Amino acid sequence: MARRVYVDTARNSKPHACYDPAEDRFFEVKDLAELAEKYDEIYVDSSIFPRMWDQLRALIDNGARIFYFAKPWTWRKWREKYANELKAKFGRKKTDYGDAYILSRIHEYKPRLFKEVTPLDVEFKPLLMKERALADELLRLRQRHLLGIDLEDEIEDHEERLKNVRGEIVEKAMEKIPEFMEIAKKLGLDNEDVNALSALAGLLIYLRWPYEVSSFHKAKRLLGLYKPTWKEMRKFEERSGEKYRKRYSGYARRCLILLTAAILMKERNAFPPRARNQKEVLRRLLGILKTYDEGGPQGLVAALQRGH
Known about the structure:
Blueprint: E1 4-8, E2 16-20, E3 25-29, E4 41-44, H1 53-61, E5 65-69, H2 75-81, H3 83-90, H4 96-109, E6 114-116, H5 119-146, H6 152-176, H7 180-186, H8 194-206, H9 216-223, H10 230-240, H11 250-267, H12 275-290, H13 296-307
Parallel strand pairs: 1-4, 4-5
Antiparallel strand pairs: 1-2, 2-3, 5-6
Helix pairs in contact: 1-5, 5-6, 6-8, 8-11, 11-12
């Protein structure tokens, strides 16, 4: 049986709060890599801070499996569900150890709410987070520049830094995903399309390919392109007691928008990309990915590992 530990992650220098249900023991660690010696599976909350990626990489390299809580917007509901247990154990509902305990109870009740952190996640997501932060800051600088503030030097510096990060993402994709350029060429891209290639790399990571082969319906939900029927919204509201709200990955959707924009400009000289254009590109991409699916997801992962 796998040895499991549940972790409420902390930012900066604060230690991570941990709970071992087999021993009913609470403890702290400064570095998540310290858990590798004793535990096979580590379950963390949805807050994976920048300093943690190297720690997660060390855990995976040591053979541990890491899972993160994939539906953070339901956290308040879970805390209320176990409020009596938390008060009995800790005297109040909200504590770091209490949050680690809630993770263990969620996993016991609904394990499917956790997603595994993949080896490609630890390679790419730090870079993807950096790329988005630089792009957002560049946009803010340009908006302020339009107001008459002289920011030409800062804009030029951010443009160069963003270009370098996107180049780094593309280089890593070519190194870590053997089929990457073949997929890109089937979409009409070439080595010069660095912005589009970095967006494609990000989209593959958020789709969890090749560890999962997503259906078009599932991918549309992830990307916020699925439009529910009135009956589906009503059913959700009756079941949950809450008003329906679309939940999707803004990071993944941004990658799809950038990729679609680049493809449209090359093929039709059209802009901006509309939802129907994004669906067309997504369908094309998924069709291409399924051509690599002869050995199933496990066969794809084996091919990926051989590419390393």
